[in-house]
Automatic annotation (TrEMBL):
The protein's name: glutamine--tRNA ligase
Gene Ontology annotations of biological process type: tRNA aminoacylation for protein translation
Start and end residues of each Glutamyl/glutaminyl-tRNA synthetase class Ib catalytic domain: 1-175
Enzyme Commission number(s) of this protein: 6.1.1.18
Family under the similarity heading: Belongs to the class-I aminoacyl-tRNA synthetase family.
Organism: Populus trichocarpa
Length: 305
């Protein structure tokens, strides 16, 4: 077998176990088979099977606990049988159910097929539920560990976790660690007509959704002046019940600022393109941002009690 005098697949070396056992994994499993594939050079053409090699490797590497999923539970008898015959140290074997996440491929064998067939962009493709893919997607190790701890360990053979549960832990982690800011990608000019042109008010904006009102470092300043910009998609010429943006004659609340009411729309020469919007702000509806948060918290406390 070693010298390759036998054709591939024509012979195997089996372990002499127990053909009378109720466990099929004790029926003289294959230890070595012939395979003409480069491994550690081309000198050897015999390869050990998984059932023969993995328990020996665990023992030689002083593994304390060999963790595997439930489909390997029937292999435990063979695992301990071979180590006993060879008089080797026996690690402790634990089996548990597989972690499946809805709408995701979790099998290493299937993931390997996708990667080797180049159906995805490597093991770190952000569409894959691999650690490398999650890292490339921006998911932190803390969020992953919290997700896993929250699920716990089970031996139930049907354990499928909804993806939304992982996304919840990701959001909770980012709410504590990722500072927020504001940006306008498609700006639409808004002129506050009842605000002096030289006046600029610095308003408090939260870096994190759950920012403490007592922590000054959790806030940053947002300037509010006569000219501000909103997203083009946040304005419509015709209002509707299911639309919450700005429209002619309608009032909306600017984030961290005041309510504004659209009083006039300036159009281009084609009478279709919106050049700018004129609006008036209601200064009486805006309190100090931190006072407003404190008031809401106090109200919440009264409702609870």
């Amino acid at each position: 077998m070693r010298q390759g005098m036998i054709e591939e697949g024509k012979a195997t070396l089996r372990m002499k176990q127990d053909m009378q056992s109720d466990n099929g994994n004790m029926h003289d499993l294959i230890a070595y088979r012939i395979k003409f594939t480069p491994h550690s050079g081309d000198k050897w053409c015999i390869y050990p099977s998984y059932d023969y090699a993995y328990c020996i490797v665990d023992s030689l590497e002083d593994i304390t606990h060999s963790l595997c999923t439930l489909e390997f539970e029937t292999r435990r008898a063979s695992y301990y049988w071979l180590l006993h015959v060879l008089d080797l140290y026996q690690p402790y074997v634990w089996e548990y159910s597989r972690l499946n996440v809805t709408n995701n491929v979790m099998s290493k064998r299937k993931l390997n097929f996708l990667v080797t067939k180049k159906l995805v962009d490597g093991w770190d493709d952000p569409r894959l539920m691999t650690l490398a893919g999650l890292r490339r997607r921006g998911v932190t190790s803390t969020a992953i560990n919290t997700f896993v701890r929250g699920i716990g360990i089970t031996r139930s053979d049907c354990c499928t976790i909804r993806l939304e549960r992982l996304e919840y832990h990701i959001r909770e982690e980012l709410n504590r660690t990722a500072p927020r800011t504001m940006v306008v990608l498609q700006p639409l000019k808004v002129v506050i007509t009842n605000l002096d042109s030289g006046l600029v008010m610095d308003l408090d904006a939260k870096k994190w959704p759950d920012a403490s009102t007592e922590d000054s470092s959790a806030f940053y300043k947002v300037p509010f002046s006569r000219v501000v910009y909103i997203e083009q998609s946040d304005f419509r010429m015709k209002d509707s019940k299911d639309y919450y943006g700005l429209a002619p004659g309608k009032s909306v609340l600017l984030r961290y600022a005041f309510p504004i009411k659209c009083t006039e729309v300036v159009l281009a020469d084609d009478n279709e393109t919106i050049v700018e919007i004129w609006a008036e702000y209601d200064h009486s509806k805006k309190k100090n941002q931190r006072e407003l948060y404190t008031g809401l918290l106090n109200l919440h406390g009264k409702l609870i009690h």
